[in-house]
## 1
Amino acid sequence: MGQVNQMRDVFGTLPHRASDDPALVLAVQNFKGGVGKSTIVSHLSQFFALKGYRVCVIDCDSQASTTAMFGMNPDIDVDEEEDTLYPFLRHGGPKSLHYALRATYWPGIALIPANLGLYDAEYEFAARMAREPTFILDRLRDGVESIADQFDIILLDPPPALGMLSLSVLRAANALLIPAPPNNIDFASTAHFLKMMESTLSELAEHGGAREYSFVKIIASKMNDQKSAHLAIKRMMDAVFPQDMLQATLKDSAEIDNATANLSTVYELTGPATRTETHKRCRAYLDAVGREVELLTRKTWPSHHKALRKEGLL
Ligand SMILES: Nc1ncnc2c1ncn2[C@@H]1O[C@H](COP(=O)(O)OP(=O)(O)OP(=O)(O)O)[C@@H](O)[C@H]1O
Ligand SMILES: [Mg+2]
């Protein structure tokens, strides 16, 4: 893949943004746990890298599942004092996030890893919040901005709770993708999440300017077409949020489960494993999600508008 991108570079066909287009900073956010945030972050990052974009993944979750998906053992390979967001978030931390960027075995993807130590940042942030709210809330955003010029897309994988890190992620992002499995419990909590988002964002706005998002989309995740309840709730989601649903859904797939169990992604499977129907179907779901997010992203880049118009996409 590195070679393909070298060729693209030679022929000027790399799909990069222009330097004055804003890097997309996409948070895959929902305060509910287990809805597919990390799965979407790791697969989206690889979809974009395969297309030749320059991608950065920031693991903001002390559970570090995304870090593990990229082949790093959070307990062994990651030093919280040197490799994670933690030193940056601490009082008197470094000026930029460059120190934490790690190359991955995926050409085109850099990772800021996480480990359990990052959890301390929650406490330290909460303790400092009363004294210096704007500094705390904007710290991650400043960090993202300190590295943004090197990337087309920065993906943020937040922890599953309404804590200081999650708030910082909402503040650092300029676009949101909200995974919501179409079952009653997850839908109820997603509706709750959206309500909370509204009040949280207006509260955040009081601490120094509202954050405008280029797009906010809900994606039906872990969707099982065989379950009539899932189909019914998906229809309800489409009715309640007609403008806000991603058209593509991320279906519940044994292929994703299997890949995760092996700490890998569906894009990493090779050989005979990739010739099964389950694999092909799963790739199709993932690619459809990737293409839709790619289009939303390119629309935020003025330098891409001419090409998009030519392709009939704008
Ligand atoms: N589309 C899918 N099909 C099958 N399994 C899935 C799918 N999406 C996610 N999973 C599985 O569900 C579990 C939770 O997914 P994931 O870790 O991505 O969720 P999360 O929202 O990041 O969780 P947390 O809130 O704990 O960070 C994982 O075991 C993952 O393999
Ligand atoms: Mg996760």
## 2
Amino acid sequence: MSTLEIKGLHVEIEGKEILKGVDLTINTNEIHAVMGPNGTGKSTLASAIMGHPKYEVTAGTVTLDGEDVLAMEVDERAQAGLFLGMQYPSEIAGVTNADFLRSAINAKREEGQEISLMKFIRELDGKMELLEMDQDMAQRYLNEGFSGGEKKRNEILQLMMLKPKFAILDEIDSGLDIDALKVVSKGINEMRGEGFGCLIITHYQRLLNYITPDKVHVMMQGRVVKSGGPELAQKLEAQGYDWIKEELGIEDETVGQEA
Ligand SMILES: Nc1ncnc2c1ncn2[C@@H]1O[C@H](COP(=O)(O)OP(=O)(O)O)[C@@H](O)[C@H]1O
Ligand SMILES: [Mg+2]
């Protein structure tokens, strides 16, 4: 079993404190959901874990099986087994999807242990079929001209091909129609198991109709303010977030503006 542990994480962007002490522990074989209204720091958490240069960690720790993730370069974080599915995946002209995936897989392997072309193609075909993606998507430039739904499927394709220990999926459900949502869920559920842990960041409960999380956390004001089981997500769907604000005695759930 592997463990990703976030403790007392404080993060600033351009001198403004966005995360104010996030605590969260995920084990492999677990799927956690982080929910919360807009502007509460969810994407900041994802970016900080992956090492986006704009996000400055001012206190706290992130460890993967005890190893200091924050001391690693971004590519070392990927090597160590972290994967970030982005809210807005970037387009890379001139690099085909298949070439990108094969390089990414090989970058995680020792020299001489590269995946064979045959094995790679067989695996890619299988996963693309499961995700109901057109075969020609493999030869298109990465994310270039992909629709919103195609980009999200492609993030899941990357996830399935790279097989990270932990995936952080930021708003993977945003902009998806119901069919795409089901396909994306199928991919994530397929990954579910011993060597895999997942943090699903979402604004809405609907994705969690297809992927039952082991734990649900609510973020407000740059912290995890409440944790529970899948029933917590259902309560949020039915009642919104106001009851939590009342419970906590807060008026503004966002990270807040500087005075
Ligand atoms: N790159 C950035 N530069 C300046 N402020 C940012 C940046 N990214 C996020 N913020 C601010 O941090 C707060 C939290 O944003 P974010 O983490 O994206 O929230 P969420 O994902 O929960 O909607 C917001 O007030 C937002 O304006
Ligand atoms: Mg966000």
